[in-house]
Amino acid sequence: MDVDTVILGGGPVGCTLAFLLNDMGVSNAVIDRDLEPYGLPRAAVMDDEIQRVFHDHGFGDWLAGNTTALERADFVDQSGAVLIGTDMPPLGLQGVPPVVCHFQPDLDAMLRARARSGGSCTFWGRTAVDMGDRGDRVETLLDDGTTLTSRWFVGCDGASSWTRRQVGITLDDLRFDQEWLVVDVEVNEGSTVDLPLGVRQYCHADRPVTYVKCHDRHRRWEFQVQPDEDSAALNTPRGIWSLLEQWMTPQDGRLVRSAVYRFHAVVAPEMRRGNVFLAGDSAHQMPPFAGQGLNSGMRDAVNLSWKMSFVARGLAGDAIFDTYGAERIPHVTSTVAHAVDLGRLIDQLAGRASHGVDIESGYGGKRPAPFLEAGVVVPGDPRVGHQFWWRPEVSAALRTDCTTFVVVTNGPVDLSGSAHGIPLVNVVDPEATGGSFAVVVRPDRYVAAVAADEQELNDALASLEAVML
Ligand SMILES: Cc1cc2nc3c(=O)[nH]c(=O)nc-3n(C[C@H](O)[C@H](O)[C@H](O)COP(=O)(O)OP(=O)(O)OC[C@H]3O[C@@H](n4cnc5c(N)ncnc54)[C@H](O)[C@@H]3O)c2cc1C
Predict the structure, then answer these.
(1) Are residues 126 and 26 in the same domain?
(2) d(C-alpha 191, C-alpha 207), whole Å
(3) For residue 281, how far is its CA from the centre of ligand 1 (angstroms)?
(4) Same domain, residue pair 357 and 442
(5) Distance 10 CA to ligand 1 centre (A)
(6) What is the CB < 6 Å shell around ligand 1?
């Protein structure tokens, strides 16, 4: 079988990549060894960037029915006093709530179905036993003897990635290693149990605890396992209810699932070897305190998909793939570092350790957000490398088949004479340019360049073309 892209791993990142590629006309096959999505507790929150992608690709109804906006996030001390925190506005810069909660098994199942209905060839219950990059193609052998030939291969095969080992990429360790017990509870219908509204980090000296008010009646607790404790004994109904007793009792709800994880922080120094790419947990893993593991993996999928679509249609050359790691590795390294600092901050504010983490790293603090520092961007303006703020006209122009960049200008401009090969659409929206002459927006909504006049715009487009072709 011949396809453009073979995706190993039909988890949430692999299936996100698959539906994006389908919507962009890039044929693909997805292989997963498991017949059903992973069942243990993991991701609970989705950020606004990924919600916006989901809205644009027709998942608005699913988001409306399967997510709940997060109302608040804070850190509290032993007495319940708030140390740092923030109330979430109903809508953020992307025209959606800044963060929503979901139930990951429902999300994963929906994504699998959507990949398949969108045109992906799916191989559930199968794995790869061999994969070879021949330069002009990748040959993949499945365990049932099927051979797949593709232009590209993407390893979305999770933390212990077979793909990563096949291409010999070793993860850099950012040094975090803690054992936590993660518990999902469903509170009873009509329950009056009094629980916090959003995400809360309990900075307790004896045991840091995370609480998340998840979608619908789902509630999440994460308990840090102490060095002298037996995590297997804690991870029993008796152990869990004794941990939960200061919040609720078995009369208030039921245990849904639980797992013990070692949270750690690792990032791949490369996300591409030839025609083979890594995305999601295969390339980076982080503690869950920032709720960014899956969001970051989906960002990989968004980044890679439009570049594959541009190359498949002859709108960009192979060189654009060098920008995948150049954009994603610094961004995700910064995200992982923040997640680690959040974890350390909990211990620090509990008086258990002194890590020197600035309290501004806490929820709602002033720590700067990561952005694209290099790649398909023209650095200079502070908006470059960040997501463009949501504007309906620009959204309409940024088509989901990813065939164009959008040049947002404060007045009419003639782009026809520009000596560049990037497909462009002009949207006149003076309010959106923030006083500049033009803002160039990439297919994935990141700001590629900001120009003060027509000459700067043409220079910026020429620079972008040089990186892409
Ligand atoms: C407690 C906890 C809380 C979290 N909370 C959040 C959160 O709130 N927000 C957030 O964004 N992230 C969160 N995360 C992280 C998030 O769950 C992961 O980053 C995400 O699930 C990774 O998705 P993935 O598709 O890359 O990998 P996976 O979900 O691991 O999927 C990999 C897939 O590949 C398949 N596979 C693996 N090897 C092979 C093989 N050799 N052949 C065939 N198939 C294979 C597997 O069966 C699996 O389906 C949390 C994680 C934990 C542990």
Answers:
(1) yes
(2) 27
(3) 6
(4) no
(5) 10
(6) 8-14, 31-34, 38, 41-45, 127-128, 156-158, 162, 182, 261, 280-281, 288, 291-295, 297
Q: Which of 345, 361, 377 is the last residue of a domain?
A: 361
Q: Are residues 293 and 357 in the same domain?
A: yes
Distance between CA 31 and CA 406 in Å, rounded? 34
What separation in angstroms does the CA of 96 have from each of 56, 67, 88, 419, 434?
12, 12, 11, 37, 21
Looking at the structure, tell me whether residues 415 and 327 fall in a common domain: no
The domain that holds 446 is classified in CATH as: 3.40.30.120
Report pLDDT digits (tens) over 334-355.
Answer: 999 999 999 999 999 999 998 8
Q: For residues 154 and 279, is the Cβ–Cβ distance under 8 A?
A: yes
Residues 11-29: tens digit of each pLDDT: 999 999 999 999 999 999 9
Q: Which residues pair with 75 in a beta bridge?
A: 84, 201
CA 34 to ligand 1: nearest atom:
47
pLDDT tens profile 163-207:
999 999 999 999 999 999 999 999 999 889 999 989 999 999 999
Confidence of residue 63 (pLDDT cuts 50, 70, 90): very high
Please state the atom number of ligand 1 nearest to the C-alpha of residue 222.
Answer: 1
**Residue with CA nearest ligand 1 atom 21:** 294
- What residues make up the domain containing 463? 392-468
Pair (291, 355) in one structural domain = yes
147-155 and 2-8: which strand pairing? parallel
For a ligand 1 pocket test, name from 31, 129, 157, 304 the mutation site with the most ligand atoms within 8 angstroms of its C-beta.
157
pTM for the whole structure = 0.97
* Smallest CA separation from ligand 1 atom 18, residue: 294
How far is C-alpha 372 from the geometric centre of its chain's CA atoms? 15
* Structural domains in the chain (count): 2
Residues near 182 by beta carbon (within 8 Å), at least 6 away in sequence: 40, 41, 42, 220, 221, 222, 258, 259, 260, 261
Concatenated DSSP letters for 138-205? Answer: EEEEETTS-EEEEEEEEE---TT-HHHHHHT--PEEEEEEEEEEEEEEEEPTT------SSEEEE--S
Give a yes or no: residue 462 inside a domain. Answer: yes
State whether 292 and 166 are in the same domain. yes
